[in-house]
Amino acid sequence: NAGVTQTPKFQVLKTGQSMTLQCAQDMNHNSMYWYRQDPGMGLRLIYYSASEGTTDKGEVPNGYNVSRLNKREFSLRLESAAPSQTSVYFCASSEIRGREQYFGPGTRLTVT
Amino acid sequence: DAKTTQPPSMDCAEGRAANLPCNHSTISGNEYVYWYRQIHSQGPQYIIHGLKNNETNEMASLIITEDRKSSTLILPHATLRDTAVYYCIVRDPTGTYKYIFGTGTRLKVLA
């Protein structure tokens, strides 16, 4: 099992560009999450999906949209990137909401 | 969810046990203690969790005091690969989605 995979690993964007971060899990988990981690700080939840077909805002949703494409895949979209969105983005999944989470390797995004 | 307090950093000699403390004095009856770690630049890794009994798995042991106001994560034989930031999180798994990752304890295992 690959666990949680994320693409791309690295990305550089110019201000105003858009992009989609992809996440997939092969553990048949119901819940999926997107976090961001800024230097020297803990993780902050952007959006989560408790189950297929549902999505909800986390602590810092502004500037982002998500799509739970199917049970396996949960994407994060930046419609108009800003320098404040420079961060490392982690996707995670759990069997059900509230259970222990398993994280992907992260996407390092720089917005210039 | 209850707040946690951890020391910012600790050192441990390779091969020795690493004991990482966590205070969670406001923990409520439904809240579990979870431990994760983050090795440099990687995604956080789940280690172990417990409610009130001590727990052990292939990675670590978790000791929770009888009053549940504090806990200790024990890595029995620390290796250089255990150098990481360790996060103690307290939450009710039936409650909100939130995991509050604080700043954790930076453990350095010394050769």
Task: Explain this structure.
The complex is a heterodimer of chains A (112) and B (111). Helix content of chain A is 0%, strand content 50%. Chain A has 112 residues and is mostly beta strands. Chain A contains no helices and 11 strands. In chain A, a hairpin with a 6-residue loop joins strand 5 (43-49) and strand 6 (56-57). The relative contact order of chain A is 0.34. In chain A, strands 2, 4, 5, 6, 9, 10 and 11 form a 7-stranded mixed sheet that branches. The mean pLDDT of chain A is 94. Chain B has 111 residues and is mainly beta. Chain B is 0% helix and 45% strand. Chain B has strands at 9-13, 18-23, 32-38, 45-50, 55-56, 61-64, 70-75, 84-91, 105-110. In chain B, the strands form 2 sheets. A 5-stranded mixed sheet of chain B has the order 1-9-8-3-4, with no helix packed on it. Chain B is globular and about 40 Å long. Chain A binds chain B through residues 4, 31, 33, 40-43, 45, 48, 50, 56, 58-59, 88, 90, 92, 97-106, and chain B through 34, 41-46, 49, 87, 91-95, 97-104.
According to DSSP, the number of beta strands of chain B is 9
CA distance, first residue to last residue of chain A = 36 Å
Low-confidence stretches of chain A: none
Please state the structural category of chain B. mainly beta
Number of H/I helices of chain A: 0
* C-alpha termini separation of chain B: 37 Å
Main sheet characteristics of chain B: 5 strands, mixed
Strand content of chain A: over 45%
Order of secondary-structure elements of chain A:
EEEEEEEEEEE
Radius of gyration of chain A: 13 Å
What is the average of the pLDDT values of chain A? 94
Instruction: Supply the number of helical segments of chain B.
Output: 0
Percent of sequence in beta strands of chain B: over 45%
